[in-house]
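Example 3.2
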Amino acid sequence: MAAFFTQNRGKVTDLKALSDNELAERVKQQDAAAFEELIRRYQGRVYAIAYRVSGNREDALDIAQEAFVKAYRKIDAWQPTGGFAPWLLRLTTNQSIDFIRKRKRHAQESLDEQYLPETAGAAVQPSSQDTARAVHAIEIEERIRKALVVLSPSQRAVFMLRHYEGLQLADIAAEMGCTVGSVKVHLFRALKKLQVELKDLY
């Protein structure tokens, strides 16, 4: 994933010893090696977000790649007060949802075929309770992905950062430039909307 950043390797520095913010500041100075280190640290978490939203490994790889490219291009918009990780993860969340919206618009493939290509067009016949639970869990994940589209960008970001990434409310507030109270409001409204969308699952 870091293959497209290969310049600016002149200075010998132990990048692993630097903090995220220090690396991000170096990226602002066009230090691509510093960005490669950030990719190394966060490619797993970025991919995980992309996969949770898209439900497809290849799509998740594309989303993750594009999220890092966008982060590199928009690094000047990042401010150290919020921390690099929440900024990157929020950008990834928005990139993932945008991808889903575009895919929905073009209607290239159904979400069922994206998520379970080996069973597309065939009825699922659970052979055991474990299989039945796994199928049910997949259905719930898919329903949640669809429901995320109804949230506003702020609600979606707060929900993903809190429930999927486990960030503290204070960290989310610092990244989004708002108060903890505002984060709580976004989170409350997001949960209320999801309850409406997923009411048949309760």
